[in-house]
Amino acid sequence: MKDSVLGRSQKCDIPINDPFLSQRHAAFLWRDGACYLQDAGSTNGTFLNGKRVSGDPIELLSGDKIDIGQLSFIFVTEGVADA
């Protein structure tokens, strides 16, 4: 898997048209087979299981809930093929 940036900008790897997203809102970083979430300096924040993400990347576990802008996601690892 490759690192990906989510945000409102069409230059992001994951562009989402949501007025509550920053141009570059959050990053998903892959290290040693694990995925980490990091806020990219967003205005409205990135939340993991109800807590605001700030500072160092946080490792995601299957079933974690991610809230970004008006969107909610559940991180799932089952069935993901190694890249």
What would you say this structure looks like, in words?
The protein is mainly beta and 83 residues long. Helix content is 0%, strand content 40%. The chain contains no helices and nine strands. It has strands at 4-7, 14-15, 26-31, 34-39, 46-48, 51-52, 58-59, 65-68, 71-74. It has a five-stranded mixed β-sheet, with no helix packed on it. A hairpin with a 2-residue loop joins strand 8 (65-68) and strand 9. The protein is globular and about 30 Å long. The model has no long low-confidence stretch (mean pLDDT 93).
- The share of residues in extended strands comes to 35-45%
Major β-sheet annotation: 5 strands, mixed
Radius of gyration, taken over Cα atoms and rounded to an integer in Å: 12 Å
Termini separation: 5 Å
Helix content class: under 10%
